[in-house]
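MODEL INPUT / OUTPUT PAIR
PAIR INDEX: 1
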Amino acid sequence: KTLLKIPNLNSAGYLAGTITLATLLFTKCREIINAIQSSTDTYMMGESLFRLSIFYILTLIMFTLKDASDRNRLEGTTFIELNAMTSVSFAAWALEGYRNTGFVPLHAGASVFFSILSGFNALSSTLKKKA
């Protein structure tokens, strides 16, 4: 019910982030299943499981932020911190994508968009809270 409700622009951005990360999550699950069936070495399996956990946590965080945005509750301390953390995570992915090194799950442009969305909301919520 709340996933399809889009009362404001922030909510639409968080919905896009949730769907994007959920897609990465399911793709990584499929990779892990294929790796188990093909007897991949344990290091590669551990690396895949670690990345799966990152996608899982960030998907839940983006959905939580979407729900908070739906209810106009982004000024809460927890939501400010979640926005700041996701902004840093997406910025790191954007930097890796720009440098074309390491683990890059998203295109740099998408990472920059989600980083700016989360960072702006963290900053504006902090300023509203202090005012």
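PAIR INDEX: 2
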Amino acid sequence: KVVGRVLAWNNSLAGGQVKVDRLGHGLDGPVAAMAVHQSHIILGGTFTLALPEDGVPLQCGGLVAWNPQKRMWAMVGRTNVQGSVAAIASHGRELFIVGRFKRVAGKDIRNIAAHRGPLAAPDGWRGVGGGIQGDHVVALSAVGSNLYVGGDMVMAGSRPVR
């Protein structure tokens, strides 16, 4: 089984040297998105496990946080996403995700979710705008009070988008 799939480059070393580090022993599936949020690297994709440098693999289901200071994995909101994450945006104290999922933290949340508060807060998850229905939600950006979402969407909340 292929593992790894995520690395850190440090190109600020003397003489143009480059150092490459693994994040733990990596992830068991592809990474589709990354963002920095609360001093962590947040990764989204189609993986299900984050593999620490030693110890038990973390069952994370498509979304995980890497703490670069402690060199360890953590779950966002102490729960996994039941599906995959295609894009991530950090905006102030909120972390937004889009992808293909129907449940987050035991809540019915369709393809777009937000987490507010400390990364470990299990009650920080909520749906956004009634969710998104469609086959392929893959892009996300936050500017001001607006979220911009891209993909093949049929409904946003209760409104048709086609």
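PAIR 2 NOTE: The radius of gyration is 16 Å.
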